């Protein structure tokens, strides 16, 4: 799209708990996010929202060897780049799996208005403080064997103490990688991102 957008959706891809391997074009998590971006960007653009996809430097969260965890500085750098290129536009963080955890970690950025998390990795004790005053929407399937629906539900319960709004959608018997009911995942990503940005698709 051309001109200054009404808002921006920053996509944050998944990863794994530990891994210092570079995220290259062969990374399945990054390619999955890029593929989703290609399918949702048209609708988001028509509503006036730009879409950016961040590629982390390395594949892992790496909290045992990195402080803050590896993708967090990358996401903060990307938010700085948004301000440098576009100015003070509202940003929604759209994250899958580890990307959802990364999104929560940097949600305290002043440009961020909300987080949309898809099958997020939100283990017990994950801080909810960065979501203070922000919107949070998550979708998770009960057949997920990689991340936990129950942990996401517990996180949402805790987040209600600080977030401006919290929503959890039970996607039923779908797994982690969003291969089942792809249109449903995409529709959730688009509708919640636009709602948090306060814009809508043209009639």
From TrEMBL:
<protein>
    <submittedName>
        <fullName>Lysophospholipase</fullName>
    </submittedName>
</protein>
<feature type="domain" description="AB hydrolase-1">
    <location>
        <begin position="9"/>
        <end position="166"/>
    </location>
</feature>
<dbReference type="Pfam" id="PF12697">
    <property type="entry name" value="Abhydrolase_6"/>
</dbReference>
<dbReference type="InterPro" id="IPR000073">
    <property type="entry name" value="AB_hydrolase_1"/>
</dbReference>
């Amino acid at each position: 799209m051309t001109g200054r957008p009404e808002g921006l959706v920053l996509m944050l891809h998944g990863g794994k708990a530990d891994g210092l391997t570079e995220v290259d074009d062969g990374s399945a998590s990054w390619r999955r996010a890029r593929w989703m971006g290609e399918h949702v960007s048209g609708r988001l653009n028509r509503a006036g929202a730009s879409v950016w996809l961040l590629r982390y430097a390395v594949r892992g969260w790496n909290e045992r060897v990195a402080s803050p965890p590896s993708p967090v500085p990358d996401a903060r750098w990307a938010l700085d780049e948004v301000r440098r290129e576009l100015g003070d536009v509202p940003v929604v963080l759209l994250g899958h799996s580890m990307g959802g955890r990364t999104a929560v970690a940097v949600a305290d950025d002043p440009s961020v208005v909300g987080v949309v998390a898809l099958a997020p990795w939100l283990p017990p004790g994950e801080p909810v403080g960065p979501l203070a005053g922000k919107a949070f929407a998550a979708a998770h399937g009960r057949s997920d064997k990689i991340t936990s629906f129950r942990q996401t539900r517990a996180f949402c319960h805790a987040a209600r103490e600080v977030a401006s709004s919290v929503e959890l959608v039970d996607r039923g018997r779908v797994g982690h990688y969003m291969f089942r009911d792809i249109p449903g995942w995409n529709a959730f990503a688009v509708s919640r991102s636009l709602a948090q940005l306060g814009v809508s698709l043209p009639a």
